[in-house]
Amino acid sequence: MAESIKFYLDEHVPRAVAEGLRRRGAETLRTQEAGMLGAKDEQHLALALSEGRVFVTQDADFLRLHAAGQPHAGIVYVPHGTPIGTMIRGLMLIQLVLNAEDMRNRVEFL
């Protein structure tokens, strides 16, 4: 059976998103919990890759890293201003229809 998606949330993604995902059974790690506040973008992607976590961000710099060929376990880009409920529903839908291997080096947009 394919491995389910685990999430790693960028520091700017609201805490309520992590809480909502966890209430729905999604394995979720926040930047703050990982001790990665202030880390470089490449370090975030490296940690997410090493732990097999899809990185959820509102920072377009990660799209540039993807375009430059930086390996990653997956990136979900969420535009600023996206409501928390929309973020949670979108991420849960991604987890429902894709697996960890599907997301490797892939970007999804909410």
TrEMBL record:
Listed Pfam families: DUF5615
InterPro entries: DUF5615
Residues covered by the DUF5615 domain: 6-80
Protein name: DUF5615 domain-containing protein
The species this protein was found in: Methylacidimicrobium tartarophylax
Origin organism lineage: Bacteria, Pseudomonadati, Verrucomicrobiota, Methylacidimicrobium
